[in-house]
Structure formats: structure tokens, C-alpha cells
Design brief:
It contains 20 helices and two strands. It has about 500 residues and is mainly alpha-helical. It folds into two domains: about 280 residues, no CATH class; about 220 residues, no CATH class. The longest helix is centred in the first third of the chain and has 32 residues.
Length: about 500
């Protein structure tokens, strides 16, 4: 019975896939045949279809599929960590952060499926999935296993996808390092094929040749979703209502894939390494957006509802680096008598929905290790806010702390205030009617004009933080009052050597 369901799921998913190679993948021109990689997203889709009603019986069916029909997911990274003479330092540290284990992503999903706490000694990634303790907790209409489900599907879809993409790029670099120059002899296209395979994994077959199906299960699809929440879609970075716009982050990443493909053809492994770093860095932007989106929902920021979005944000740390109670800001209406992180605060002042706790944790599993590479103290402050079994769901998340920790490290993360954007979360001003006689694009423009920034979620100022969203200028510096003030304790001790220095992304010959 199970195998028949699997066949039907994959058959239905295959009917949606419209891409084959050589050919276009989200606008990227693959020069080799990588259909096997391209269609791996159908396995993820089948897993999610099984679990989509969020009930525990379906969750168990998803577990069975993951362990059998969808077992490919458990082989990621298929290239293997630590292979080859040169490995991305950032990526090695990403995995070493979880107690030197290269299977931290697999362990996360396995423990979520088993509803078990994460084992002791799991590095800085403490947390857990204890059944009846962490989930289920909310009394909403969500399924009883939705928290566990979100921790599985968002990680298997996005974190797994990131790991496989980056490692295939690394495999391509190792092939080129071995002297494979396709443009010279055209007898060995392995480096080129592995680079194409990485692009195929990043986009997936469900998005179609031009990447306009908006039905994928990959990081490409995620970027298109999150840009709408922050109203940074489209050529002018000011659209959020339209589902037809490609995220600027995707435009950049696909451009890096295309440029890296030229380097792969030439066997230029040093340049390929640089493009791999750029692709890896840009993939974190939708994760930051996702982490902030759900951290905001799980926080007490709704107490800002009577304030203008332009109200300055609270500095969440005091002069010693300790978390400042939310009530220290006298400008804000504060019903939480014992401070921002009071677990006993009234639940009506912040969300505790299992679905939102699970989503915050899953996005943070991708974003926080990247933050750790830039600043260990920042990551160590953020992770307990949004990880399962800690603050999220039990008390209000300190959104301002989470937000500031990322903002202080945007330059190191190779992004900017403008690129991440302010959180609108797709909520429009319902008091202003939409003219249904207008075209779809005109209606969407009207919706965007009526959208409001969520309370306390206005993004930082690029000039003050030393960011150049157009060129990532290395000569600009963070303003002294910002550097020595609110960011003082959030920009120390990078987890990866030179990760916070401009030369980390510089082209250098080995």
C-alpha cells in the first residue's frame, strides 16, 4: 500500500515538472544532463504531501516515507563532507558547530520524527522535541503534529537543499583543481556537470525552465516567498503583493551560478571558490527573513501597535552585553511586568502557536550557524530565543535582540538592511478598499501602497551600519556610535577566521 502511494505521489509531482537538461533551469542554461539532480525536489514534495494535513497519523506516514521511499534525503550531502584537499572553511565550521558532527541536519530531522529531545553534547544547538512538552502546546486549529512537521519539512527542504548545493559546488571545484579544463579539450565535463547539478538542486524541477511556476520546494522558491513578506520583490524592490515577481536574491544567485559555470568550463577553481562563497552567503538572506518573520510573531512586539513604525527600536542589550528588559523603554506600552522574556507573561501578548514555533526553529537552524560564523556571542544570544524547547512558545521572544544581532552582522553576512528589508508580512490596510476594476498588476500595486510595516520591524539604516547595498563597499565603516553602542557585544569572536573581513570574499589564487 505504501509503495503504491509513493508511486502515485511521484507521478503527480512529475506531471508538474516541466524542465529537462541540457536546457534552462530557472533561467540558468545547464550545458549537461542533470535531470536526476533536478528532479530530487519531487521527493521533498512527496514527503510534504503525505504530511500536509498536519495530523499525527500523516506525520508517521511521512516518517515511513523519509526512511524508505524518500531515503535520498538521508544521503545528503551526496558528495560528502571533508572530501578533497580544499573545503570551504565556512561550511566546515557550520557543521562543526554541532559538536563536530557532519550529520547534524539528519539528526535534527530524526529527533523531530521521533519526538525526542536533542542529545546532550549537541554543541550550541541545545533544544529538543519532547512530545507533550515542546509540542503540542497551542490550542488553535492547527494539527496536533504541526510543530514537529514544520521542524521536519522546512529543514529537509531548505537546510538539506543548502548543504547539497554547496557541496556539489565544492565537488565541482575539486574536479577543476584536478586539471579538468573543458574549454581546452572537451573530453571531461565532470566539473561542469557538478556545477550544473548544484544549480539544478538549488532551483528544482517544479519551478520550470524560467523559474516562474512558484510551486517549488527549494531555496529558490523560498527566496520568492520571503521577498513578498518584506516587500522587496521586483526590479524596484518595492513589491510584495504579486506572486509573479522573482526575488532579487534569486537574480543575484542565478547570476553567480552562470558566472561560476564559465569558470568551471575554464577550470578556474580559484574563481569557482569565490562564486561558491557568494552563492552560499546570499542563500542565507531568505533564512534571515524567515527567522525574523516568525520571531516577530512569537514576540511581544504587538505592544507597539499604537506607535509609528518609525519609532526607534529598543536597544535590547545594556552596557555589559546583558539582555535589557523590554520594560526599560518607557516609550512603549508594556504589559509584561517582569521584562521582555518573562515566561509567565499573558499569552495574548505573543503567539505560542506550534506552527510558528516550528517555523522559527527551522529557519534559525539555517540562519544562526551563518550568524555564528560572524559572531559567536550574537549566535549564542539568538538561538535560545527561537529554538524548540527554550523561549519560543513558552514566553515572548525578544524580537529586538534577534533583529539587532543579525543587523549588526549584515556586512559580514554579505547583505544589507535594504536587501533584507522591513517586515510587512503580507498584511494590508483592510480599511482601504481595492478597486477590482483595475488590472491584477494595478490591484497589487494598490495593495502594496496600503501595506504597513509591522510594529517594531522597520529595518536598519545602511548608512549608519556601514553597508552599501549596491556594491558592498569595503571602504565604508559602521558609525562609531553604532559600533561602540548597540553592536558592541554582537560583533565579536567570529566563528570562522576572517569571516568578518572584506578579504574573505576576495579573489585570491591558492
Amino acid at each position: 500500500m505504501f509503495s503504491r502511494i509513493t508511486v502515485l505521489l511521484l507521478a503527480a509531482a512529475s506531471a508538474q515538472a516541466q524542465t529537462s537538461t541540457p536546457g534552462l533551469i530557472g533561467g540558468y542554461s545547464a550545458l549537461t544532463e542533470v535531470d536526476d539532480y533536478l528532479e530530487k525536489d519531487l521527493i521533498q514534495e512527496a514527503l510534504e504531501v503525505l504530511m500536509e494535513d498536519e495530523e499525527c497519523d500523516s506525520f508517521q506516514a511521512g516518517k515511513q516515507y523519509y526512511n524508505n521511499g524518500g531515503a535520498y534525503l538521508k544521503t545528503i550531502p551526496t558528495y560528502g563532507l571533508g572530501q578533497g584537499e580544499v573545503e570551504s572553511a565556512e561550511f566546515k565550521e557550520y557543521t562543526k558547530w554541532a559538536n563536530n558532527k557532519d550529520d547534524f541536519h539528519l539528526k535534527w530531522v530524526r529527533k523531530a520524527f521521533d519526538k525526542d529531545p536533542l542529545p546532550s553534547g549537541y554543541g550550541e544547538m541545545t533544544g529538543g522535541f519532547a512530545d507533550g512538552v515542546v509540542f503540542p502546546r497551542d490550542v488553535g486549529d492547527d494539527g496536533e503534529c504541526v510543530g514537529f512537521e514544520e521542524c521536519v519539512k522546512k529543514v529537509s527542504s531548505y537546510v538539506f537543499n543548502f548543504i547539497e548545493t554547496v557541496q556539489l559546488l565544492q565537488a565541482s571545484i575539486e574536479e577543476a583543481r584536478g586539471g579538468k579544463i573543458y574549454l581546452q579539450d572537451q573530453t571531461d565535463d565532470e566539473a561542469l556537470k557538478l556545477w550544473d547539478a548544484a544549480a539544478a538542486i538549488y532551483v528544482g524541477s517544479l519551478e520550470g525552465p524560467l523559474g516562474q511556476n512558484f510551486a517549488g520546494k527549494s531555496n529558490y522558491a523560498l527566496a520568492n516567498k520571503r521577498c513578498r513578506n518584506y516587500k522587496v520583490c521586483g526590479p524596484e524592490r518595492n513589491e510584495g503583493a504579486s506572486k509573479k515577481r522573482t526575488a532579487p536574491i534569486n537574480t543575484k544567485i542565478m547570476g553567480y551560478f552562470a558566472a561560476g559555470q564559465q569558470a568551471a568550463m575554464a577550470g578556474d577553481y580559484a574563481l569557482m571558490e569565490d562564486y561558491k562563497k557568494l552563492i552560499s552567503a546570499k542563500m542565507v538572506v531568505p533564512w534571515i527573513q524567515g527567522t525574523l518573520r516568525y520571531a516577530h510573531r512569537l514576540s511581544g512586539e504587538r505592544t507597539r501597535e499604537n506607535l509609528s513604525p518609525n519609532t526607534p527600536n529598543t536597544d535590547p542589550l545594556d552596557g555589559s552585553g546583558a539582555i535589557r528588559p523590554f520594560s526599560d523603554d518607557s516609550k512603549l506600552k508594556d504589559p509584561l511586568e517582569n521584562g521582555f522574556n518573562n515566561p509567565g507573561a499573558p499569552t495574548e501578548d505573543y503567539s505560542s502557536y506550534d506552527k510558528e514555533v516550528g517555523e522559527a526553529a527551522a529557519f534559525a537552524l539555517g540562519a544562526v550557524p551563518k550568524l555564528w560564523a560572524c559572531s559567536k556571542p550574537a549566535a549564542e544570544l539568538v538561538w535560545p530565543q527561537v529554538s524548540p524547547g527554550n523561549i519560543a512558545g513558552f514566553g515572548p521572544v525578544n524580537f529586538q535582540l534577534v533583529k539587532l544581532a543579525f543587523e549588526c552582522n549584515y556586512k559580514c553576512l554579505l547583505t544589507s538592511c535594504t536587501e533584507v528589508g522591513s517586515l510587512y508580512d503580507g498584511r494590508d490596510n483592510e480599511e482601504v478598499p481595492i478597486d477590482d476594476t483595475l488590472s491584477e498588476d494595478e490591484q497589487n500595486a494598490q495593495k502594496d501602497a496600503n501595506a504597513d510595516i509591522r510594529p517594531g520591524a522597520k529595518t536598519c539604516n545602511d548608512v549608519q551600519f556601514g553597508y552599501d547595498p549596491k556594491g558592498y563597499s569595503t571602504c565604508k565603516k559602521i558609525k562609531k556610535n553604532i559600533r561602540n553602542g548597540k553592536c558592541k557585544f554582537l560583533t565579536k569572536k567570529p566563528g570562522v577566521s576572517k569571516r568578518d573581513k572584506p578579504e574573505y570574499f576576495a579573489t585570491e589564487l591558492p
